[in-house]
Each structure stands twice: as C-alpha cells, then as structure tokens.
Amino acid sequence: MIENDKDIPIRTKRKINKSGIFVGVLLIIFALLWIASKLGLIPSIFFDIWIQIAIIIIGIFILYKSL
Fold first, then answer.
1. Full-prediction pTM beyond 0.90?
2. Taken in order 47, 50, 51, 52, is the CA torsion positive or negative?
C-alpha cells in the first residue's frame, strides 16, 4: 500500500474515488434487489439475471473511463 497519498496524482485520486462510488452504488442496488426478491416484491427472475446486468454495466463503465 502507498503510505503517503500525496504521491498519487490528483486525476488518479478522482478516478479511484469515482470507481469506489460506482462499486458502492452497485452493491447497494444489488442488496436492495436481493431484499426485494426475498420479500416477494419482485419476481426472482430479475434477481437471477442481475449478475449479467451488473457485468454489462461494469463493462460499459470501463469502456467509458478508458476512452
């Protein structure tokens, strides 16, 4: 690990922060869908395909950041 985060360029810090926020939002959405599925509010089929949807969203995010 980096002991002194002053050595990290500002652009890199921003990208790390945005990526962290993105992953956090995905986890929250995943947890909310899981709870809704277990409570019977949504059919479990939506929860079953959520992993594929999350992978597509992550792929789009990576492409967006790399361009």
1. no
2. positive
